[in-house]
């Protein structure tokens, strides 16, 4: 009998591990494990669980139709496997490779040892264009193309029955000592097909012009991230389906939208490959030359204001409060929150990353940590993007729709003052029903002064640490930078990530 271990791959379509486990007609036992230790990690939250538990319910319907229901166990993976071995004649284990957090990396090492000691093979398959191991990035684009355009894995038509299921919805919630307040408007796992269909058929028309505008983004973006993060949707299947739509598209807006979407999808695997190649970047600066830069300056007061959406900068606060309520934020909003925390507030990226990881329903470690480091300026290969919070506000929420929605206390302030409410006189504040420091915070820092200070700090730091700089940078480019041709064939090496901001 084959054991199918489901992790962040909660689907049956284009499922390499299921396909291989079932292809000889051998009985397959599908198992999901809720690991209590995992749910104590500081980058997890019950928002993730709310989505996963619905996804498991959906998946159960699929497995029941195939003939063998899904089993769910609570406990440490090795302990669950030990118990299963006593009940079932398991001859091999099948799963997808997981590029998770440091905890799941260590867990997988322990699990590998467990099966090895029992001489039971554990077959792991790629679920993204992420290669294990990858010597360097010279040929990654080509390899990724080949992988993403390869045929999808067929789904078995049926599975031999082994045993009845051991659970029914709703599954018990894992325990967590401290957690965020629940997310009242989160995306649901049950909405996958409507999200995908409305996007490809209609919402993609607004993708190109809408994804960076705070008020338009929730509708214009695909909103497929949580389905990709927990593997309800296969990345390869999505790429191929969107490509088919692109080929059939006759409307220019639709073509441009699908082109932009298709290129964004590419960044998914590109970023996950970074964490796969260097799992330590979850906790350490990608460029070690930045070690020590911000560690000793952490302000708990600034962090708390930022994390609650109470900095006094309307666009920043609206973005954080939207995220806390919905569990989602568009790319530009995420980048801006990290940049503001890193440069204006001079906070180290690690606590910032953990807070956001808990907030995002779509938390995907492989995208999250490399993106956080990029926005915090610790990769050594990306430009420092210090967003001006007022300029961004005027550009990306010009009529203040997003700000007014998420900061109702600013509702009656005219648009001309909305982006900088601190410029209102006392009597204007009274007139518009919003007293600064009472109804809405006064700015916790002065943006211009904070950025000047950040620039000076960086300049001094770079001057003092120049010696180790170039060697480190070369190492990072070789290991992590995207390129369509090998380094030797290029005149100038630059991170193509820049294209992410051309919208
Ligand atoms: C600091 C920071 C942290 C982030 N953390 C996460 C995370 O934990 N999980 C996550 O899925 N995304 C993360 N992103 C990337 C991006 O913001 C989200 O993928 C996107 O906003 C999700 O919404 P969507 O599915 O509607 O995106 P769309 O614009 O519709 O894009 C479709 C898909 O392409 C991929 N994608 C899009 N943009 C990027 C990008 N810049 N980098 C990598 N992949 C991308 C995602 O899989 C996304 O679902 C982060 C970005 C930043 C700046």
Automatic annotation (TrEMBL):
Keywords of this entry: Chromophore, FAD, Flavoprotein
PROSITE patterns: DNA_PHOTOLYASES_1_1, PHR_CRY_ALPHA_BETA
Top-level taxon in the UniProt lineage: Bacteria
InterPro entries: Crypto/Photolyase_FAD-like_sf, Crypto/Photolyase_N_sf, Cryptochr/Photolyase_FAD-bd, Cryptochrome/DNA_photolyase_1, DNA_photolyase_1_CS_C, DNA_photolyase_N, Rossmann-like_a/b/a_fold
Reported cofactor(s): FAD; (6R)-5,10-methylene-5,6,7,8-tetrahydrofolate
Domain Photolyase/cryptochrome alpha/beta: 1-130
Family note: Belongs to the DNA photolyase class-1 family.
Record PANTHER family: CRYPTOCHROME (PTHR11455), CRYPTOCHROME CIRCADIAN CLOCK 5 ISOFORM X1 (PTHR11455:SF9)
Descriptive protein name: Deoxyribodipyrimidine photo-lyase
